[in-house]
Amino acid sequence: MDRLVNTVRPYAWGSVTALPELLGQEPTGEPQAELWMGAHPGAPSRADRGEGPRALDELIAADPEGELGAAAVARFGPALPFLLKILAAGIPLSIQAHPTLDQARAGFAAENALGIPPDAPHRSYRDANHKPELICALGDFDGLCGFRRPAEAAALLSGLGVPALAPLVDLLGAEGEDEAEALRSTLVAVLTMDDATAEAAVRDTAEAVEKAAAEDPDGPYALYTRITRGFPGDRGLIAGLLLNAVRLRAGEALYLGAGVPHAYLHGVCVELQANSDNVLRAGLTPKHIDVPELLKVVGFTPGAPDLLLPSPVEGTPGEELYPVPIDEFRLSRFTLDGRERELDGRAPQILLCTAGTARLTAADGAVLELARGESAFLPATGTATRLDGAAATVFRATVTL
Length: 401
Hints:
CATH class of the domain at 141-297: Mainly Alpha
CATH architecture of the domain at 141-297: Orthogonal Bundle
Distance between the termini: 21 Å
């Protein structure tokens, strides 16, 4: 068992207080957006096995089968296939989508062939992997996910009474029953309108959103005030009105596969994803927006997202699983009540404590305690580890073999 020392990513959209509160630290006054737990080379966790701290990706590279297990290496390769995070959004993240595995491989190879440096700000593909992800709210969590149906989006835009939005309303109804094409045409129009037109349209839309939200704080426009105030003047406001607004309560989750447009607006969540950092953006960001590449990646099928609730894991009392349609990551949650649980050691896993204090006991009797915000890496040794604690919550990230 290894206690992990993890890196906080200070992205501008991060909350100033949420992560410090979770970790029991004093705020620095700067945004703290994500706590990374895993072996991604961008910010690998570190573990000390008696010779000083070493990066987890280096430890795995030195002995892939010893750390990950032969079965995981055979199935997923010699690297940890998932990345676990705590995400704390103070203002909205960019509207974004992620590529399929084939798209990521092709895009990464194409940008390498062009000689674009891996850390270049205008690069779209930072690795050759896809980035499906699962988020589980630790409290109220607001976001946007997937496209509304065109008729619903048209009604939302029309309800603002902004003349500049009328052409977009027309586009949403222009393709008859081809909803995907109507949404595609509308998003293209938003992202490619000239700067002067966009500036005026966003200004008028923002004013209308603020007015509507003031008149009806529980109405459909209230959530979008996070965008008007967090990213004034950004055309992502209009793009965001095309997406479903979602509020997760603590313990509720969303799975986002390739091509699903989304934006996280506010709140704290546990996020588990494939080991990738590939993001194609559509707005709410000062970062690079590659419209042609984005349009290759985004899926335009409309529909409300499905909320996930955990289901009890047969044979493991106290463990609840969030089901996802892929095997590269598996997220479950333990609500500990003083009774001991047994974790099999066939696969690599990261355990994250989000409430109370949890205790891990290895087969050799070694004990590791995890306070709130702390995490541990358990190599695939093949031997069981015992988990216990009173009034503690522990998330378990692993793979499905």
